[in-house]
User: Fold these one by one.
Assistant:
Number 1:
Amino acid sequence: MQRHFHLQGLRLAGDTGGAGTVFILGSPDEVKTVSKSDYEQWLADTMGNPAELDIPYQALSEENITSLN
């Protein structure tokens, strides 16, 4: 579970860098808030260097859903 909150002018627990952004990382055993830099480090450690996916837009229609089978 990942949630991203951005609040201007408010010091948030876990925002050690003072950027105003806190990320909430959760697992079945633990939930914690981390700073943006800590999140970016966690992401790099967890995901490596993933490539951005280019997913073409398709309208949500019966025809498009049926074509997935």
Number 2:
Amino acid sequence: MTVPGGAKNFLSRPALPVVGIMLAIALAMRLLWLDRLVGIDGDEAWYGALGQQWMSGHFVYWATPTGNYPGPIHAALVGIEQLVMPREFVALRLPSVVASIGAIALAGLIAWRHAGPAAACWAVVLMAALPGNIIYARYGWDPSYSGLLLLGGVAVALEGWAVATVALFALAVLTHPTNIFGAPLLLLALLAGERRRGRALVSARSGAAGVALLLAGVAVLSTAVQATRAVTLGGALERLASPSQWFAYLFQYVRLLAGDPFFEQFAGKGYGALLSLVDVVGAAAVVGAAVAGVIAVRREGLSPRAAILLGTAAMVAAYGLVAGPAPLTAPTERYGFVLIAPSALALAFAVPRMSRWPEATALGTAGTALLAATALLYLVPLHDGARPMSWFLRTGTSEPHARVADRLLAERAKGPVRVVAEDWFLMWPLRYRLNGIDGVRIDLADASATGANFAFAYADSPLDRALAAQSGGRPPLLTTHDMAGRPISRLWRRP
């Protein structure tokens, strides 16, 4: 395998220490306080409980309350982890960290293979430092695998391997339906791979037909998925003819790459007054990459570089046409996460030819800005408790659900434990943590939940106030607090 620039050239680059520093910081930010920052989401624990069922020999396939079915990868990996770290909350998130690191490595290898060491450096730094990639590496659910699966598809497509491309695309769509938007990128990458290998057009057409057939099949299946139900032909046609909507989509796409909706969702506030600067710098980079793609096609034909740049542009445009800017905002930013890894790879292919700064300076500036944004707008606010986050993601110096589960485990030594939890987000972390323990049962607090001797509620919620009124003046068994000392939840002993 011939690599542009060669390994010796890559290792001797002055920018390599900068890449190493950026990568080390980004990896540390993926792992720091992983088990408690943010607090364990009921969705994450639900995946864990599903994996526990599989590992115990009960192959059930639960649907979420909105009717969606999960992909198989995350639940299976969390289930396997139960063999070595049963019921640990950190096990819910480690697979996402591994997937994120794998995506960084894949992006670097693709860029090195097809565009040289400068592009490889940019691919590693961007994939490592983009805020959305860091935040979703810390969150255990299906969208976190989009980058790894789509970049895997790109890698095999650029080698001209049609069957592997179709298989990875199928797995990507099965993992999360938004990955269907990767079809234009994978198709152009496959055609470029066929061209590189000097194959006849018949082979290319075969690969394209396979992708097209799969695309049609999963498009039909995806109509049953909640995330796609709001998409209408009328909305797409309206967006197609509306320049204002395309401008709105461009800037919201830039904000997605810069991390603004992720900061809003998890820490309560995005860039604020700096958002205009983010818009200008990000839009310039995105438009520059699109122009670089057009130039690459004119000079190189359908080269791997041109395929990545134009394929990503087609993917982003298709998303804008079908879905518009709304899914790229909090709290639905997870539907736009599919765009981040391909965009990072495309920018890595374009920026080295656009930038006039020394490579080490440009990489250091971009990486530092992105990492600083994640530190200052995500990690620091969540750790010091300065901003309230979503009610079900609040956390403290120790993970709140873990404290409650440990207390209930101690109560189990005195007799059977039957708990009613206020909602899904309180119930599933306890079910995951206490799974398989005889004499423990966790249910939702509804009309059918009778005979419970404990109740778990959000602090100061209507249920919490009702439990306090029924307690006869007795204090709660346990109160959890966030970093700023504000109460999060309370565990009550029921009379």
